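Q: Can I see a sequence and its folded structure?
A: Here is a first one.
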Amino acid sequence: MSSTLFRHDRIWTGDTARPWTDALLVEDGVVVAVGADAVEAGAGATTVELPGALVMPGLHDAHIHTEWLSRDLSSVDLREARSLEETLELVREHADTLPPGEWLHSGRWNHNRWRVPRQPDRHALDLVSGDRVAALSSVDGHTIWANSRALRLAGITRDTPDPVGGEIERDGSGEPTGILRESAQELLQVIPRDESPLRPWLERCQDRLLSVGLTSITDIDGEDARAAYAELHADGALRLRVTKCTRDGDLELAISEGRRSGQGDARFRVGPVKFFSDGALGSHTAHMTEPFLGHEGCGIAAMPYEVLLERTLLAARSGLDVITHAIGDEANRLVLDSFEAVRAEELDTLLRIEHAQHVRPVDVPRFRALDVVASMQPAHCTADLELADEIIGPRRLASYAWRTFLDAHVRVAFGSDAPVEDPNPFYGLHAAVTRQRADGQPLGGWRPEEKVTLTEAVHAFTVVAHESVGRTDVGRLAPGQLADLVAVDRDLWALEQSASAEIRDTVVLQTWVGGDLAFERS
């Protein structure tokens, strides 16, 4: 049996009965005693003096796409471009580094940040992509900007009908512009494509996540990521704790294999099934009750409600928890209706709404009544605040309403939605506490009545994030809990009132998973 006594003057435990301590005794990866009891019982244990100004529980990203994030490491990053011209030049420079025939992919372009915020077209992309396929994802992942070669190889013409839950944008003469929204993106899957093995990229991604204080994640991506994580785990190379979701299209496969949420061990577990109810704000495909300002449409329903209900019940009856993406107020209403049907069958399924960005006030109490977790990403608020004002305006909605949900006794779990946002959880903590961007704007925070305290934000990134996938054995530094902890360079609680902007710049010095050192800054 291995026994380690961890010492530090400021250890925040996350345990309401004893929030602060100065010692943790860990045996075989589990905290067995704290404080004076730990020191007394750990007289013969190996002692580790933890560095930095503060020690706290390891953080859990409740919503992250690690395959996307890993693949993005090999792509061009277009997030910071401020014009179409700047975007095209970055694409051109990246294309020149690629071998012949390799796709231009990902990109994470964001036309809402361009000086002229107009979506691009295939003709512009043709100028810099040469004879290779180009299919560049928007920052929110809900729109593809494709070149003419991609459309041609996929057989997308003026006569191609819009798929259910998707849209092929067309110009005034009816020709496809190259913009493919929601399920229309899947039309490109018929094009043959060779990709490098995922595992090496995931290993690099794992290092990055550990370096920012994440000790566990709920991964939203597909079967390739599941296979790579299973291989890492079998080889003893998985240092993160991973709860692995199943995508909608793989639900029948999961059922046939006998997957049930919670199966696995302390390191790698079967998670929920992920469904989509609508699109995203940046792509103007969030499903709203009223049209966006300046637009005729109310967004896109990713699947008809009858299908959503059928799929949700199938998953729940098969022993799989359910998490459903909903951005717009109408999408949230419909998902809650589907969850009401689950509860009517007295199924104890864990239910989450992913994002819950814009919710009718009348629907907020339904989260509590149906025991639905609001799985939210604080950095979405600070990234979207100007866009939300522009296309949603002052209509009466609970928008990025963490305080409203908490006051209604709704469980709130936090994550990043990386690579849509940066996976660094301290960026999310800063956004939750200040509702400001990194530059300190807007002064006082956007809709500041929705701010939460630092303790509440950390609770959402630790205890509730774990609970939202059925884990109560990790998230606190208390007896009986897994010893996942991070040592950081500043005392966040001392900064909360005086200089909360510095929370965002927190540097992780060490990350421990199950009492083992998983990352140390050199």
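Q: Show me another, different protein.
A: A second, unrelated one:
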Amino acid sequence: MEHLFSAINNIFNFVIPVSDFFWDFPTNFSWYASIPILGNFSLAVMLLIGSGIYFSIRTGFIQVTHFGKGIRILAKKKSDEIGISSLAAFFLSSAMRVGPGNILGVTGAIATGGPGALFWMWVSAFFGMATAYTEAVLAQIFKEKKKDEFVGGLPFYGKVLLGNKLWAGVALSLMYIIYAMCCLPAQGFNVVSSIGQMAEIVTGASMGSASYFYYIVSVLLILVTAYIAFGGIRKVTRVTDGLVPVMAVIYVGVVFLLILLNLGSVPYFFGAVFGGAFTPQAVFGGIFGTVLVQGVKRGLMSNEAGQGTITMAAGAANTDHPCEQGCVQSIGVFLDTMVICTLTGFVVVMAHVWTGNSAEAWFAMDRLPKFLESAKALTPGAAMNAAVAFLLTFCFCLFAFTCLVGMISFSEIAANRISSSKKVIYTVRIVGIFITAFGIACSLAGIELGNLWAISDLGNILIVFANIPLLYLGAKCVFRATAHFKKKDGTPFTSSVIGRSCHYWDERAGKATDKKTDSAR
């Protein structure tokens, strides 16, 4: 069995250079890299940050002006006979955004690009909020009603914007499904291994991956995942509604405690981040491009703005105007990067482990142990250290689990663009559970499929290259919808607002008109 897993891992060795090529292109060509200033910026960086700047300007920096509006939409109580509420969609998208990348991605970015990478994560997130707004509005404009649910997102608006070509919707759906399925093994691995780590912290005893405990946990995880996945998007949202607030509150609370216990290191944190953003230390390569790319790359891995993958949650929401969910999804990027990722950065940078006498041993560790070792350095006393390690590992476990069920659910929504037949939907669910079981089996065999993270990186950038051009194709629709939203004149949103057919909104406006007519009678 071990030879089989090792062989599979080796097959994916080619992914790392391919992923790096697309992320670094065209800086990996000497003629481009030699261009002053411009040579530091890869196409991916220019697309993501450049598009965020463009959408910020064209929407009047809506991520700032309507931030409060987004909060009020989340707080608004609304009965949803069809689809899910804006709050449920927010939690569902947060289940995907607030994942292991919030710990592993930030820790890895600091290890590779230094603390300055965190600054560029902030920059990309600020402008990425406008990108997330744009793609969420498109998901809402072109969503479709399927019985008592809404389906929408990248495959749906992609199909419409590319001339209603069936192949476009199918291709984008398959791209997302393949990407999600490639990410599932790592998430299954993360859940089981983190539960094992928590058990070791509680018992104080080392547990081998081949122990009965791991097998029982693995079987239970597969059964629970299957139960949730086969309950459809409504059951998934009930789970994420409960878990997302819990994991966010615990994580924020624990890290804030560590910050309070180490207030003297806060100035060092900001000095290291802002200093490293523009003058990277030689130990991290000494080049501006490394810090910048790491920040944008890990920022995308975490908040997924511009990737189009979170748009499935946005399209599932029942709203009064497409732009409402755009404001909500923008807040999701803020929560993910400005709050959760920043807190992770505080722990890693303030601990000084990456620069002290233990730096060499710290760099040799994997990413989660790097983070836990940093937290340990900030925690006084063995008893408190054990409690902090347990709670942070527990949060990591929930991050991975919500991401796991979210990916299966989003794959189901994407599959609806191909076919809404039960056979297709059930097939997606079964394949997702089977691939999750594969990742769990890797954990039981004691093999870490590190190259699967490279597949995730490759999937991220390929979907970005597919999604960003679509956002520009649909930008005029978003800008017109935004102008209508800001006008607040009481008129319903219809096709006439954007000059393009959006069947659901026309049907909704017609029903609203019918109700007014009936009331007048």
